Each structure stands twice: as structure tokens, then as C-alpha cells.
Amino acid sequence: MESEWKFDQYIYMVINEDLMLPTREPVMLLDPEGRPTAGDGAALPAPDDLVRGLAGMVAARRFNEQSSVLVRQGRLAVYPSSYGQEACQVAAAQVLDDGDWLFPTYRDTAAAVARGVDPVEVLGLLKGDWHSGYDPYERRVAPLATPLATQLPHAVGVAHAGRLRGEPTVVLAMCGDGATSEGDFHEALNFAAVFRAPVVFFVQNNQYAISVPLSRQSAAPSLAHKGVGYGVPGELVDGNDLAALLAVLSAAVGRARSGAGPQLVEGRTYRMQAHTNADDATRYRTDAEVAAWADRDPLRRLDAYLRTQGLLDDARAAAHADAAERLARHTRDGINVDVVPDPADLFAHVYSRPTPQLVEQLAQVRDELSRDEPSPDATGADAPNRAEAR
Amino acid sequence: MTSTAVEHETLSTAQAINRALRDALTEDPTVLVFGEDVGALGGVFRVTDGLTAEFGEDRCFDTPLAEAGIAGFAVGLAMNGMRPVIEMQFDAFAYPAFEQVVSHIAKMRNRTRGRVELPLVIRVPYAGGVGGVEHHSDSSESYYAHTPGLHVVAPSNPADAYRLLREAIASPDPVVFLEPKKLYWAKGEVSFGGGEPGIGTAVVRREGTDATLIAYGPSVPVALDAAEAAARDGRSLQVVDLRSIVPFDDATVCAAVESTGRAVVIAEAAGFASVASEIAARVSERCFHSLAAPVRRVTGFDIPYPPPKLEHLQLPSVDRILDAVDDLQWEDA
């Protein structure tokens, strides 16, 4: 009996292990030229979803461009761009319901915007007025995570709380390839699997952690393979193919919502620009490599497909561009407003009520500032120039 | 309020903490208790004994053995309407969770301007004196106390353990709840009524006129023993029990020191850059003109916690405290 039991367990494990492994090649529904990879394209998401996705990507790209300009103009301290990763950014937001949660990283500002958070508030962290610029509960978007992978266990907790209350909440938690080396990535996957938490872990593998290439992060066949060790199914998908991302992520969200537990999805994409404006990508990668990925651009691919299907014409494309321009203008105008941070805020939110020591320290700062009042004619002399529209 | 009508009961510290968890689980359906071995086993110190049986697997449960995961999981639960009470099995085993504690638990309210609060409690069986092998006896309070955004409390008796934990669970702020291991079995009268607020308030445990001993957690009973011994020698020592390291009760501590003019700070943790250092500095700055002698500290030495057969040399003792008191520039010396 003993050996029989073990044998059964072994078979059970092997069968499920096979089901959990990702495909050898990334799931791709549209090739880089925008042609369906499988005959009639029956596996493709509905046309409306694709058109909406393209509009989202056009907006996301414009947002990336605008934000980079705002850095050059000195209006943002820094901007980690998701240029080239717009398919991942848009898909992450598009597959969720209003009651779901999105956990973005610092590079996922476009995803937060796609979910409906005010872009000016999204950029609050990078503008430097405060650490997190938006109310996470308003659109159910967690604060942009700066430390790597530490937001993933939070995502599992949020998902588990919803499940304990019998709510249908699914959490989509984003991270990058570098973050998969962090311990919290593994602990989060393990917790999610053990508690069958409705979480979709979405790794944007953009090939670099600042300068360190994927080959130095992992020797695994793919990052999606990392799920199997935790009992979490892994899927590998072309991260520049919005159609494939919508299909795979929607299935994962649906699976999680049905109570079947977490899933790991690796989107294979490329960070087309440097890590941030402070980085010099020419020190660690070649122009030829970047050019090869430019040929796999997610916007061009979907645009080409929709036009051949008669789902997109110039008028509709122009409407997408106009909407993107309005987003850029709103972003620009909002970021160009100078906010004078209130020093009292430094002490107001450390605890629900400031400790007596913080009350003393605020009084000290107020006293210093009162002795520091500038003379009237100096006011505004060294205020930053307002950035002009690009 | 609870299943029993008794308002007072004699309990050990471990039983008082268990009772606080039970009462909180009973009164508030959002309270969750989890960690390593807290379920069927009831915790390695039996602090969570019987809770899974009484409240079910959804309310008190074992997790994978991963402290960062436990703390991070608690963050998410607290973000989404729950009040997690997590157990770090031993002081030194809490270190894998350090990033979650410092970068997220402590900062979430501040980074979101108060929009996201994390009402969670991190229970840590802590400090030495129980013959634990290495990594089982650390006094880790200074790490937490140095981190803005955390409340840090350390009860010295069963009554405070009950009341402080109830307050910690009800608090909208994250609380690091340090449970002195060597006091787990110490018994005392516990009141289940409302009582005075404990977090943020120190208390004078023993009145005295010649010098003030300032202690918290496991060092309070030692300080009281020292005061008792000193009384036999004709010296009247006052004992202040901090209870709450953060927020720190400057008012009570300073009033006490000003009333005697002399102070000795007592703590098990290594003295360098410690909570004891902070107290000594605060008292020196704020009570300078009332002091007849420099503030003395009786702390652990600046060494890794010793093996069991040598730990008595690390722990503040009655003799070491009395030696420090003798050193306080007495005019009659």
C-alpha cells in the first residue's frame, strides 16, 4: 500500500507538472508583420478589444514620450520609460475588472494610466512632490513599487483578503525580469499557490535589469518556468503582441477568478530606451540589438493587422492620436503646475497621530522657516522656468 | 465582551497574550492570526494555543516558513480590510522580514499621505535569559525603534501584555509587539476592562527618591529586584517601566528623573547605538539641570549574544545595577 500510494502521488505530480510548464516558444497570435500566426485567427481576442488595445498603446506611447520630455525640461526628477513595452502596459490594465487590483512597479506608470489613474498623480513620485501621488483605493492601483518584488507578497495578501470575504477580486501583480531573482518573488508565488490566492503574476521580461542582461539573472529555460516549483502554472507570451497578451492574461485572470489559483505569465519584450534618463544603455548593449527589437514594435504590428481586417482606417487612427495628444497635454499642464510642498506633511502621516516628538520637530521646522522668510523682491527670482509645450 | 464574566484573572504572560488574541478574534471578524507553527501546535511558546480550534483555519493559520512572505502577506491583508497579527517565531528569525518592515510596513501611511493605513501587529518573542541557543535570544528593539512609522512596545508583566496587545490590534498604526521570552511564564493579575492607555505611556512601577531606574520589557523585574535590594541598604530607588519604546513618554520619564536627580537606564540589548543610548541622551538633554550625576547605562555588552552557559554575563543583573547606582556621585560617598 505504501509504495502504491507513493506511485500515485508521483504520477499526479508529473501530470500536473507538465500542465504547468510554459510552451517552448512564446505564445504569439500576430507575427511582427501583423499576420495571424494560426490560419483564420480564431484564437484572437474580439475586434473591439483589439481596437481598444491599440488606442491604449497609442496613448501609452505618447505618455512615455511626453514624460521623457518632462524629464529633459527638469519637470520630472526621473522617468523610467516603458517605451516599447506598451503592449504589456495596456494589456495588464485592460484584462481587469473595476473591482480587481493592479500592482505596478515604477516602470508601469503607463499601466496605471491605462487603468484610469490621473497621469499627473501617477507621476507624483517622479515629480518629487510626494512619494505616491494617487489614492490607491480610487482605481484599485497599489502605489508604484520602487524596491523590487516586495510588492508581490502584498498582492497575495490583498487577493487573499478578498477571497476570505467571498469577493471576486483578482490581483494582477507586475514585476520585471530582475525582480525574479529576489526572494520576495519566490515567497509570493509560494504563498499564492499554498493559499490558492487569485493572483496573476505578470513578469515583463525586458531583457535588462538596468545594465545586467537576463543571462546573468537566470539560467532557467524561461522565467515562466519558475512557477512550476511552486505549483503555479507558467505561460510564456510574446510581450510585444497585444493580441496574445490579452488572450493569455484574460485566461489567467478568469482562471484565478474561478478559484483555480495563481498563474505566472512572462511577457517577453524589450526596454527600447535606457533604464532612466540617468542611464547610458550604449555601455552594455548594441545598436543592432535595439534595431532588431524595433522591428518587433507592438504598435505597428497591431496597427497593420487591424488595417488589413478593415477594423482601422486613417480617421480612426487620427482619433486615437488626438486622444493621446489630449492625454499628453493634460499630463504636461498638470506637471507644469508648481506645487509648494507643505513641510507639515513631513510629520503628518508618519502615524495616525503625530507623536509628541514629531510635534516638537514640526515646531522646530516651522521656527526655522519663519526665520528664513525671503525678502519680497527675491520672491520668484529663482523659480524654475515653466516648461513650454513640446 | 468575552465568553467569561470574570473581570480579573491570574494568568501567565503567555496566557494573557493568548487571551488578548482570543478576545480580539472574538470581537473583530477582521482580525487574523498567522505565522509559523501558530496553528495546530499553538506556537512554540503555546501563545496561540487553541485559537485555530476555536476560530477556524481562516482566522488562525500556519503559513509557509518565510518571514518576508508573512510580513508582506500581512501588508496586503491590512491594505484590504483585515487586521493581521503575525508571529515571528523568534527575534533573530524576524530578520528576513526586515525589508518588508522597514520599507513597507513602516512607510505605507506616509508614502500615501495617510490614504493607506496598515493596522497590523508583529509579535516577536524576544530577548534572552531562557538558555536559548544562538539566534534565539536577540534584543532587536533598536532596529525597530530606529524606524519611523512603527510603534514599538514591550510589556513587563501579564496585565500590560494583555492591555498593550489589545491596544496594538485596535491601533490604526503598525505595532511591533516585543514579548520577553523569559517573562512568558511569570504570573500576574490581569484585568480585562478598559484601563489606562498603555501605548505611548510609561509608568512608575515603584516610587523612590534617591535615583530613577528606567527599564522596559525583561529588564523591569530586574530593576524592581535591584530597588528592593537597595531599599535594604537604605537607598530609595524609583523604577520607571517604559512599556512603550515608540512613542516614547518623555514627560513621565523626565518628571521621574527630575524628582530624584539621578538616572540609570537598563536594557539587555548591546548598549552601543541602542534604545538605552537614546534614553540616556534624551534624559541628559532634557533634565540636565536636575541631574546630580551623569546618566548611567547598564546594558548588554557590544558582543553577539552569548551561548547559554555565558549569557548570565550579558544580562543586566541586580549587582550590576547597584554598582551603577553606587557610581552616581553621592555626596555621602
Features:
heterodimer, A: 390 residues, alpha/beta, Rossmann fold, 2 domains, 16 helices, 7 strands, globular, disordered C terminus, B: 333 residues, seven-stranded mixed sheet, five-stranded mixed sheet, 14 strands, 20% strand
What does the model show?
With 390 residues, chain A is of the alpha/beta class. Chain A has two domains: 7-335, 3-Layer(aba) Sandwich (Rossmann fold); 345-374. Chain A contains 16 helices and seven strands. In chain A, α2 (47-72) crosses α3 (86-94), α2 runs parallel beside α14 and α3 (86-94) packs parallel to α11 (242-257). Chain A is globular. Chain B has 333 residues and is of the alpha/beta class. Chain B folds into two domains: 11-191, Rossmann fold, CATH 3.40.50.970; 203-326, Rossmann fold (3-Layer(aba) Sandwich). In chain B, β2, α2 (51-55) and β3 (60-62) form a beta-alpha-beta unit. The A-B interface holds A 130-132, 135-137, 142-143, 147, 150, 152-162, 164-165, 183-184, 187-188, 190-191, 194, 345, 348-352, 355-357 and B 58, 63-64, 66, 68-69, 71-82, 84, 96, 99-100, 103-104, 107-117, 148-149, 151, 171-173, 200, 246-248, 250-251.
